[in-house]
Design brief:
Distance between the termini: 63 Å
Largest sheet: 6 strands, mixed
Structural class: alpha+beta
Shape: flat
Strand content: 35-45%
Helix content: 10-25%
Oligomer: single chain
């Protein structure tokens, strides 16, 4: 029998050592893969851009005869303010949003139950065993509930955003849409707004308050290192979701 063969004691030790080393390598690889997957799960999900910067539709070109003094579509009003009235015009929206809401609820309930059954008597004497009234019964029960909840929320947004008229409805309403991006250090902040406005509400300086924008959709957010650091990862969102039973 040769030295180092599987049949010899040294051969078994060598084979066992090789198996243990191979198992340890597999365990390290599995640990590294699990760590990578865990870090990927904890990484914040990049925000979805639901407000792409699409170009607004250009108004249709009017067919005019060259050489005429008056050309439709190129007129300049002399007795009215130069405010947004056509597709492609711009208008400044003053953000003056301020909301506050509060809610409070309180509930109190109580219930008491009492039952008393005296011991029956036979020939003027109570039924007892060793001096104890075996048929006498007293039942008392009580329960109470006291609940209270309070909720409060407030939001405030101020600033100016210049938007573009993207559509003019038949009734005269103007659909506006626009956004503003501001790059600060390692992140970018944005303000987006879209909705419908009335030309009569536009001020002489071609501005309008956000409180007069119908069906308004206003959003404020950001992208970058700060926004990613403040967003929970996939694993954290799972444990905070409604499907988590604990």
């Amino acid at each position: 029998m040769k030295h180092g063969s599987p049949q010899s004691p040294g051969g078994w030790e060598t084979a066992l050592a090789g198996t243990l080393a191979h198992t340890a390598t597999i365990a390290r690889v599995a640990a590294v893969a699990a760590t990578v997957l865990l870090l990927a799960a904890c990484a914040p999900r990049p925000p979805k851009d639901d407000f792409p910067d699409d170009a607004f539709p250009e108004p249709e070109a009017l067919v005019v005869n060259d050489g005429s003094i008056y050309r439709a579509g190129n007129d300049i009003p002399l007795f009215e303010n130069a405010t947004a009235r056509r597709v492609g015009d711009v208008v400044t929206i003053h953000l003056v949003e301020s909301t506050a809401a509060s809610k409070s609820s309180s509930t109190t309930t109580s219930k008491k139950t009492s039952i008393s059954l005296p011991s029956p008597t036979i020939i003027g004497k109570p039924v007892t065993i060793n001096g104890n009234n075996i048929f006498q019964t007293d039942i008392n029960g009580a329960n109470a509930f006291d609940g209270k909840g309070d909720s409060a929320q407030s939001n405030q947004l101020t600033g100016d955003v210049t938007v573009v008229v993207v559509k003019k409805l038949q009734n005269g309403l103007l659909q506006v849409r626009g956004q503003k991006w501001i790059a600060i250090n390692q992140g970018k902040e944005y303000v987006r707004i879209q909705g419908y406005i009335r030309p009569i509400d536009i001020q002489p300086d071609n501005s309008i308050e956000s409180t007069k924008v119908a069906n308004a959709s206003i959003s404020y957010g950001g992208k970058g290192a700060v926004a990613n650091a403040s967003a929970p990862g996939l694993l954290a969102r799972f444990f905070n979701s409604k499907w988590m039973p604990f």
